[in-house]
Amino acid sequence: MKKHLWFIAICLIAFCAGYSINSKAISDTGFRVAVVDVQSLISKSSEVNTLKLDQQRKLDEMKATVDKARADISKETDPVKIAQLEEKYRNDINNQKLALDNEYNAKLKQIDGNIKTIVVEKAKDLKYNLVLPKNIVLFGGDDITAEVAKSVK
Asked: Which domain holds residue 92?
C-alpha cells in the first residue's frame, strides 16, 4: 500500500511540475511589437525626393505644351483649323498626363515596396513579431523608425 501511495505522490508531483513548466512556456511567448513612422521614412527618402523633382520637371514641360497650344490656337483665324488644333493639343496633353500619372504611380509603388521590404528585414533582424504604422497606434510598441531610416535610400 505504501508503494502505491508513493507512486501516486510521485506521479502527482511530476504532473504538477510538468503542467506548471508547460504553462510558463506557453504564457511567455516573448511577442514583440514595433512601430514605424512611415510618413517620416517617405519624407526622408532620397528616392521620393528625386521622384518629386522629376514629376515637377515633367509638369513644367506639360505647362509649356499648354502655353504653346494656346499661342498656336490664338494665331489661327479659321474656325475649322482652330477646332483641329484644339483636338490635337487636347489629345497630346491627355496622353502626356496619362503617361506621367502611370509612370509616377509605378515608381511610387516600387519605392513603397522597397520601404516595406526594408521594414520587414529590420524587424526580423531585431526579432519583432509585428510592425504597425505609428499613426494608428495609441500606446505601446518600440519605435524602430530611426533604425529603418538608416537603411532607406
From this structure: 31-151
